[in-house]
Structure of DNA-binding response regulator:
Amino acid sequence: MDKQRMLVVDDEEDLREILKFNLESEGYLVDTAPSAEEALKMLTEEYDLILLDVMMGGMSGFKMAEKLRKDLHNSTPIIFLTAKDTENDMLTGFNIGGDDYISKPFSIKEVSARVKAVLKRAGSLNTTNKKQVIDIGEMHIDLSTKCVSIHDRLIPITKKEFEILNMLAQSPGKIFSREDILNKVWSDDSYVLERTVDVHITRLRKKLGEQGKHIANRSGYGYCVEL
């Protein structure tokens, strides 16, 4: 079974390191970020959970969560970490899509228990309600059969082309660099050039015909799917 990966976002370095050490000792893969801005740049990986501090310099944890849910359509479970413990703060956190709320100071045992509970709940939801179909324009992307169709006509695309399309379609509007795509789709091959991404996307657009317009190139940045 693959290890579950989580992202700890907090502007206190000591706290980041404590959480990272203890969660890794329990078998999780843990990445850390010192700010919401940095965390948003890192979210090209598929994380199972985000531990997110509310009060940070720059973008707050609440603002980051709101951006994830509303703008990026990212449903990764979030546990808020905060020194504030008022009912209004808790309601704010849950209303913008938080899954749990831990008040500072906290014990590592409490964090561990909350993490396990949220991951278990998320796993149950994914098993029963995981979205198996993505519709972009006239494109119908079936994640269970790995097939793409337009007006019920099956489009013959390769495994790599499907993986690229799936990656972009999962987060409409989010720009993925060529490096992001290489790391995700060609993770096991260190000799693939960034030009390979361009070639695959050109072929993919051609196969999709008119619907290829939904795959947009952001010059100097990368690619994204536009609805």
